Amino acid sequence: MMNPPEQPTDRDKEVLHQFGYAQQLLREMGGFSNFAISFSIISILTGAVTLYGVGLNAGGPVLMSIGWPLVTLFVLFVAASLAELASAIPTSGALYHWASLLGGPTWGWITAWLNLIGLIAAIAGIDYGCAQFMTPLLGLKETPQNFMSVFGALLLTHAILNHIGIRTVARLNDFSAVYHIVGVAVVVVALAFFAPKQPVSWLFTKTFTTVTNQPYWFAFLGGLLQAQWTYTGYDASAHTIEETKNARVSAPWGMYLSVVISGVIGYVMLLFVTLAIKDLGATAAAANPFIYIFEQALGGTFGRVVLWIVTLAMWFCGLSCVTSTSRMIFAFARDNGMPLSSVFAKVSRHYRTPAAAVWLASILSFMLPCLILALVAAFPKRLDFSKLYPAVTGISTIGLYLSYGIPLLLKVRAMRQGIWTSRANGPWSLGAWSGPVNVIALIWIAFITVLFVLPPNDLTGYIFAGTFLALIIFYVARVRGRFRGPVAQASSDAELLKMEAELEK
Amino acid sequence: MALSMEQYGIILGASLLVSVSVCAWLLGAKAHAAVRRFREEHHESFLGPRRS
Questions:
Q1: Is the ipTM above a cut-off of 0.85?
Q2: Residue A39 belongs to a domain with what CATH number?
Q3: With the CA atoms of A138, A143, A148 and A151 taken in that order, what torsion angle do they form, in degrees rounded to the nearest 10?
Q4: Does B44 contact A at CB distance below 8 Å?
């Protein structure tokens, strides 16, 4: 018998109504767009590039050839675990909403803030990294003031585009995914054909580190930050799930495949870049080892063209990250989870985007490097600006991965208690493998959380601990007992439909 | 016969690559099968312990 024709958007709305939410955001994104936003935020041309020097200094070529696939392997388990949850609970709040339903409002609140801290630090890391590449390409001097000016301008472009509309951003995200693949192809082809190369065995045997006060294996593990930070932000597929058609299938695939494809393409790129190193010591000592490799291998003009390609990829990455963060703020504010919630939960009637949330995400991201600059100015002898970029990316990694870990931990607990059964799963499910895969993901998250606050990343630990302590104080003083977790917007379908009709006017 | 450092490195790298590929494929295939099965069955959404 033939099945009746499917109407994914109506079904999506029906599922959203089950959770008590109206369809406020425009559901325009297809499966590819959903994949594209996560793929653009992972952005192998951003994380793997801006932290290339950190990885190379920590572990040398072996960190690229062994470290990258090692991290990819475990991130696959995390991504698959999150994809399952996105399929089961398809709302924009995602991690925060999952944790609230599984563990109660306190867990939801903590998860939301960890996720927000991670995302804000991610935008700051991406756009500041982009500014570091773009400033010399524009012919400007590499001073903190110029970096900040370019950084501010980049954020402004992202905020305006995200304010104007999901259609424009979705098109740019689609383009970004293709751009990243073509960009990596250009990098690889340029290096493969025009750069002198080391033998392949060099990749797997050349251990090197500039970290002198620790054993090599420990320095190697610390250098995994390069790959681990790259693999952040793929929760964007879940944050944009209320804007995705056939959401319960498309968004989990978007999340999972963005990691798989980034893993493959990123590995190929890193191998070719590393093979093009002429002088390992000089490269590691360069201010920006990635730029240095291209200057040495391809020369002035050609090298600059490739660096422009990489820099534009970072711009796309920042654009997608602002989209994802604004959706997270919107969802959290919709449930009265943050100060001035009524402002940040507003959706622009004209553009159907969470405009206030977009601007908040951009402004907070600008403030983070400002705070760091102020700290460096205040403590010039104790703080070194060069260590602060890894610190920002470390905060982003830990914040995001802890926010991934909490709902997973609560889900494993719910499975053990029999609260979460197979009937709770969405269409995208790992079935009997779910438990073991979730547990492996949790072990990895615990491992990296400890690893990335140990020296030489102890600055990350101090900043993160301070922020977390402030959050706990804020929770005890102002939030406890008042925050009730996800709040249904209406109690009946009729009311939700009325809300949707209001927006359509 | 003892393996050289170079051989160890290449074996380790190749093993990791195979592991990543196999895991990615297996997890994806499992999810794909679940999506197909889901179309034929009725499932409820998880609305929390109190509401489900």
A1: no
A2: 1.20.1740.10
A3: 30
A4: yes
